[in-house]
Amino acid sequence: MTAKVCKENITELLSHWQDGDEAAMTSISNIVYSELERRARIYMSRERAGHTLETAALVNEVFLSLFDANVSFVDRQHFYTLASRTMRRILVDHARSISSKKRGANALKITLNTELNDAGFDLSQFLSLHNALERLIELDERKAKILELDIFAGLNIQQIADLYGVSVRTIERELKFSKAWVYRELALVESA
Questions:
Q1: How many angstroms separate the CA atoms of 126 and 189, rounded?
Q2: 187 and 129 in contact (C-beta within 8 Å)?
Q3: Hey, how many other C-beta atoms are within 10 angstroms of the C-beta on 179?
Q4: Region label for 104, one of left (φ > 0), alpha (ψ between -120 and 50) or beta (otherwise)
Q5: Predicted TM-score (pTM) of this structure
Q6: What is the DSSP code string of 62-95?
Q7: In angstroms, rounded to a whole number, what is the distance separating the alpha carbons of residues 124 and 128?
Q8: What gap in Å lies between CA 29 and CA 32, rounded to an integer?
Q9: Cα–Cα distance, 190 to 26 (Å, whole number)
Q10: How far apart (Å, rounded) are the C-alpha atoms in residues 115 and 35?
Q11: pLDDT tens for each residue of 33-68
Q12: b/e for 164-178, b at 16 or more Cβ within 10 A?
């Protein structure tokens, strides 16, 4: 998805869709679905064969949740924030479900398309990531939202900067802080 398409169309399309324009919903679906699918494919690319949550299922569940929600999307930032939170919630719910069934045996490996990828999260680590993000929200909600957009919505730094109306450098600094903070939190959990 190009920044131009995102900037010029998403907010306007959201408004038209919420006014009942089915063509706008189709356009939003085409634009956003491919981006969410790309992001989900990245998550799922390193998973074991026969994984119980497939890319298409993840994207479809995000879409169903977003489009069935009784929410008025303010703008594209609001939409992508909700999309990233929805994907995160679905992955956390799935991880918890698997964890409760298997108690860690053959744990689901979640990988992220950021520096956090190198950690090679397994199921328990993903839940720890979720908990760390919850604590980061308490510390600095904006930094947590920016990290969430990076990890779960798959937006690049320029797209996030455009959403917040700030410089790329500002987003880079906030992501650097957020990632370092999350790494520290994860290290504390592992050492406990």
A1: 12
A2: no
A3: 17
A4: left
A5: 0.58
A6: HHHHHHHS-----SHHHHHHHHHHHHHHHHHHHH
A7: 6
A8: 5
A9: 45
A10: 20
A11: 777 777 777 666 655 555 556 777 777 788 778 777
A12: beeeeeebeebbeeb
